TrEMBL record:
Highest classification ranks of the organism: Bacteria, Bacillati, Bacillota, Clostridia, Eubacteriales
Protein name in the entry: Probable membrane transporter protein
Record key words, sorted: Cell membrane, Membrane, Transmembrane, Transmembrane helix
One Pfam family per UniProt: TauE
Main subcellular location of this protein, as a coarse class: membrane
């Protein structure tokens, strides 16, 4: 049994290590075939399937992605020359900044908002793909529809996707900005405790 979230739930929570390993195998498989890092699978698995708090989920997910993505990128793709290193380094620089802001955000934004953002992002992606479906079905010869209609539907799907994500992301960012005084107070308290010892 694995025990976790002792600081969130009185007495903590327990779950079978075998079940966690099975969930990890599913995530590893998806990461290897789709290059997604597993985040879109591990978040719902951890929060809804395993009952892990949002804050713990984010940190745990980032840690396991380091190993799964690192292994698959080196062992499965780099040795065959399928990595664009310049692009990867550029993304890494941006990710380092983004992860600092994101980690601070999880300290001041309630977990329900983070779970809501995740749900909205998944639904927005679904709507985007749903609106792109007619164009793909026309290309495969399953239906007949004018190019202007399929292009319009695909464009609407793209706008809905980015619109929903940007609106909710803006809401999260505003909540983070409002929580900056809390972060400063927490940092000041930590520094004061460190100096007094």
């Amino acid at each position: 049994m694995i025990k976790f979230d002792e600081d969130v739930t009185p007495g903590g929570r327990k779950i079978s290590g075998w079940f966690v390993a099975f969930c990890g195998a599913v995530v590893g498989f998806a990461a290897a075939i789709m290059g997604v890092g597993g985040g879109f699978l591990t978040f719902p698995m951890f929060v809804y399937g395993l009952g892990v708090s949002s804050f713990t989920t984010v940190g745990t997910d980032i840690l396991q992605i380091i190993f799964t993505a690192g292994y698959s990128s080196i062992a499965q793709y780099a040795i065959y020359g399928y990595i664009f290193y310049t692009l990867a380094m550029g993304m890494l620089v941006g990710s380092l900044l983004g992860i600092q802001i994101g980690a601070a955000t999880t300290k001041v934004v309630p977990g329900i908002y983070i779970r809501g953002f995740y749900a909205v992002a998944i639904m927005a992606g679904f709507v985007n793909r749903l609106f792109a479906l007619p164009e793909k079905m026309v290309q495969m010869g399953y239906i007949s529809m004018s190019t202007s209609v399929t292009t319009l539907l695909a464009t609407i799907g793209t706008w809905v996707f980015f619109g929903l994500v940007f609106i909710f992301a803006g809401w999260i960012i505003l909540a983070f900005i409002r929580g900056i005084p809390t972060l400063r107070a927490e940092t000041a308290t930590t520094v004061t405790k460190g100096v007094s010892h």
